[in-house]
């Protein structure tokens, strides 16, 4: 992990096509996306100074974004030592997956009851985009879209507390996968997602829940305690932001 980062020239204010809101919203979205894409390694030091230079915002803005991420359990704020990307222990990983199974079951059952045709169409488009990303070799985008599929499914379920809880669980799951996934990096999530949408659309709650639990088994089955992927270099992770300011 790179604890000390080389200074950059002052960059323009943080902005990116497709992202809107306050400055801390934009910074939060970039870091959240980097976690979903497994580009930020667990344990990475999140230097306020370096992030401020990368995104061209004040440290106060950075602190607000990091505080939101800490609330979701994916960043650890250490008194007098700064923030780091969370590094879930084996026990914490098991707890997250246990909670995620319960939440996914409830979301799936509610989606069968509440998902609109428009929402199902959006989910199908997300699956197509996910498949395209893996096909062209953009694994990071594929992983992010896979996580966003589950967030969009939570929206289709129509239960606000579950949406908030799911957002935290999906991002924590991404960290767990980055930390513990085995060397087998094959992905068939888009096929499983398609089957799930079909079951939800047909109104078969039992089948939909069965498919969701199988999907979670597939994710869980690829984990071990040894692998470590992603990067600890903030400038490398957010190089696309830096390039966009030049």
UniProtKB/TrEMBL annotation:
Any Pfam family hit: FCD
The keyword Nucleotidyltransferase is assigned to this record: no
Signal peptide: none
PROSITE patterns registered for this protein in UniProt: HTH_GNTR
Residues of the HTH gntR-type domain: 21-88
CDD domains in UniProt: WHTH_GntR
Superkingdom of the source species: Bacteria
InterPro entries: GntR_C (IPR011711), TF_FadR/GntR_C (IPR008920), Tscrpt_reg_HTH_GntR (IPR000524), WH-like_DNA-bd_sf (IPR036388), WH_DNA-bd_sf (IPR036390)
Key words, A-Z: DNA-binding, Transcription, Transcription regulation
Span list, region Disordered: 1-21
Name recorded for this polypeptide: GntR family transcriptional regulator
Provenance organism: Pseudomonas typographi
């Amino acid at each position: 992990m790179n604890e000390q980062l080389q200074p950059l020239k002052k960059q323009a204010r943080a902005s990116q096509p497709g992202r809107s809101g306050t400055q801390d919203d934009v910074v939060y979205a970039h870091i959240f996306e980097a976690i979903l894409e497994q580009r930020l390694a667990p344990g990475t030091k999140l230097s306020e100074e370096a992030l401020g230079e990368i995104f061209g915002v004040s440290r106060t803005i950075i602190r607000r974004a990091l505080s939101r991420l800490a609330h979701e359990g994916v960043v650890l704020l250490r008194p007098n030592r700064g923030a780091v990307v969370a590094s879930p222990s084996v026990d914490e990983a098991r707890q997250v997956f246990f909670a995620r199974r319960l939440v996914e079951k409830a979301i799936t059952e509610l989606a069968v009851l509440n998902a609109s045709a428009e929402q199902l169409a959006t989910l199908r488009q997300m699956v197509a985009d996910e498949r395209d990303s893996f096909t062209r070799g953009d694994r990071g985008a594929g992983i992010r879209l896979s996580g966003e599929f589950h967030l969009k499914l939570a929206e289709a379920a129509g239960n606000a507390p579950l949406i908030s809880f799911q957002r935290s669980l999906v991002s924590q799951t991404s960290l767990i996968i980055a930390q513990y996934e085995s060397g087998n990096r094959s992905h068939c999530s888009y096929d499983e997602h398609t089957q799930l949408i079909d079951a939800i659309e047909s109104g078969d709650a039992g089948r939909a829940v069965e498919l969701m639990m199988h999907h979670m088994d597939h994710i869980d089955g690829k984990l071990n305690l040894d692998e470590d992927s992603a990067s600890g270099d903030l400038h490398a992770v957010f190089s696309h932001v830096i390039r966009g300011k030049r």
